[in-house]
Amino acid sequence: MVEVQTRIAPRKRVAAMKEYYPPLGSRKALRLDFNENTLGCSPKVREALAAITTGALTMYPEREPVEAVVAKNLGIDPSLMVLTNGVDEAIHVLFSSFLDEGDELLLPVPTYTMYEVYASATDAKVVTVLADDSLAFPQKQILAAITPRTKIIAVANPNSPSGTVATREQLLEIARRAPQAILLVDEAYFHFYGETVIDLLGTIPNLMLTRTFSKAYGLAGLRLGLLAGPVALMQWVRRVLSPYSVNSVALACLPAAVEDTEYLSWYVGEVIAARAEFASALDKEDIRHWPSQANFILTEIGAQHKEFVRLMSAAGILVRDRSADPGCEGRVRITIGTREQMKKAAAVLRGTMMVLRGAGTTPRTQKES
């Protein structure tokens, strides 16, 4: 087939946007490259799926009843939140609602790639603040970068790919120092950290928050997230958000997932224990890594990072090369699964390091001081 050429051009902003290419790999391998739940969602979700009738699929989805269930589970008023088609839609809609020409999005980097991607589709300017080698949250630099044009400050907490965090006090100071801007706290990895600012929603006029059901809950395939904030800000988000972007199947399954707190607690506890054990395995291999409060660990492999990823993949373990991220050259992020899974990953890691060192080129390794 020969495609006919077109003279139709996209918006200049769209033509200039960065493209995001998700990693592709065999689902037969152990996927430690996407920060997904590596085991599965609550068994009660399967029961909810089985209960869906064909008649239910003929009707447009209704978000509000399920939002009430989720809000109760989170201890907030339903008026403060909306369910979204993954956190990506939450970010996209928020930026579309508030970022205008002359505005600035302030980002500490490295961080979640899609903030900059979605902001680049608007007429706002993206301002980045690079963390130092410790990857600690660059509080002083963020405060210094705030200007009258700062409209949104996005903080992933815990951050990806580093796993590091901003403290509650740091976040409060940012919100206080930038009253003209929205402070978006992305708590996608909250469950593996345990600290949150959700209790402050509605009391701090410029604080907004996102959560996902893709990580701890294991519902990445259903594309579910939420955006929460003061009613005065949420009214504009609701105006932009599609009323049917969250599908009926996802809505039918979500209550079962959030109400099975026993399963959620078990899985989170398993990951946290596996995270500590895998960190010890990295120490034994003398591989530098950053203390993580998420379901992944960022490691420093050095010049052989591509070969490291290839060898791990060949042995059935997929990991994520983050070298393209600002300040992350030679660094590889490894998702944490269950203890049994991570014992397998640690064994493959040992063999991979033996091969790399035997090749005569030792990866740059250094324990964090």
Q: What attributes does this structure have?
A:
2 domains; Aspartate Aminotransferase, domain 2; disordered C terminus; 12 helices; Aspartate Aminotransferase, domain 1; 15% strand; 369 residues; alpha/beta; four-stranded mixed β-sheet; seven-stranded mixed β-sheet
Notes on the structure:
This protein is of the alpha/beta class. It folds into 2 domains: 12-38 and 262-356, Aspartate Aminotransferase, domain 1 (Alpha-Beta Complex); 44-259, Type I PLP-dependent aspartate aminotransferase-like (Major domain) (Aspartate Aminotransferase, domain 2). The protein has 12 helices and 11 strands. The strands form 2 sheets. A 7-stranded mixed sheet has the order 2-8-7-6-5-3-4, sandwiched between helices. It has a 4-stranded mixed sheet with strand order 1-10-11-9. Helix 3 (64-74) runs parallel beside helix 9. The chain is globular.
Provide a brief overview of the structure.
The protein is α/β, with parallel strands linked by helices. It has twelve helices and eleven strands.
Topology:
Elements: H1 12-16, E1 30-32, H2 43-50, H3 64-74, E2 81-84, H4 86-98, E3 104-109, H5 113-119, E4 125-130, H6 139-145, E5 150-156, H7 168-177, E6 182-186, E7 207-212, E8 225-228, H8 231-240, H9 248-259, H10 261-284, E9 296-300, H11 305-314, E10 317-321, E11 331-335, H12 339-358
Parallel strand pairs: 1-10, 3-4, 3-5, 5-6, 6-7
Antiparallel strand pairs: 2-8, 7-8, 9-11, 10-11
Helix pairs in contact: 2-9, 3-9, 4-5, 4-8, 10-12, 11-12
